[in-house]
Design brief:
Layout lengths: L1 E6 L8 E5 L4 E7 L11 E8 L6 E11 L6 E10 L3 E4 L2 E3 L6 E8 L6 E6 L4 E7 L5 E8 L8 E10 L6 E9 L1
Parallel strand pairs: 8-14
Antiparallel strand pairs: 1-4, 2-5, 3-4, 5-6, 7-9, 9-12, 10-13, 11-12, 13-14
Length: about 180
């Protein structure tokens, strides 16, 4: 859970009268000061708890506070929830360009050993190779630009690693640059 403190910009007292949850996040609120009376308060504690059923990945949610604050009767709080899996890519994004046509990423596991079964590329001008790192729960993946030298402009692609890890069967690495 994440706890935020909410207050009005002018520090005037107000009440939170309700919260519109999102399927991704549950929200609860309480006065942030010691006096739990029903009177308006200057600060409120809002606790956001992600759903336990969220799969690995990035999820967007919007929590809406209903308040008595003038000009903020409904206050939307856009949120991003990242559910991390056991596989971690470092770096998270590869940069490839005319001067650096090759880049590598190391994928490690915080849990069990795993295998990279294949590497899919969204751009046919990219080639990728994956090799297990001896003695580690890790794989090195090298991505290279193999397209025509006459191609110029932005490169925006993804490399998807297909693994045998049951909890994280795919891991996406972004590839960007200028050719």
């Amino acid at each position: 859970p994440l706890t935020l403190t909410v207050r009005a910009p002018d520090d005037a007292p107000f009440a939170i009268t309700g919260i519109d949850d999102d399927p991704v996040l549950r929200a609860a609120f309480a006065p942030a000061d010691e006096a739990p009376s029903a009177a308006p308060h200057r600060r409120w504690r809002v606790t956001l708890t992600p759903s336990a059923a969220l799969p690995i990945g990035i999820h967007r949610a919007t929590i809406t506070l209903r308040t008595t604050a003038p000009r903020a009767e409904r206050f939307a709080m856009p949120s991003t929830v990242v559910v991390a899996g056991p596989l971690v890519a470092i770096p998270r994004e590869l940069r490839i360009g005319a001067r650096t046509p090759t880049a590598s990423v190391r994928v490690t596991s915080t849990a069990e050993a795993f295998r990279v079964l294949r590497v899919d590329r969204s751009d046919p001008d990219l080639a990728a190779e994956a090799h297990a790192v001896a003695g580690e729960k890790a794989w090195d993946v090298t991505v290279r630009y193999v397209g025509a030298p006459t191609r110029h402009g932005p490169l925006n692609a993804v490399v998807t690693l297909v693994t045998d890890d049951a909890s994280q069967p795919t891991l996406v690495v972004r590839v960007s640059g200028t050719l």
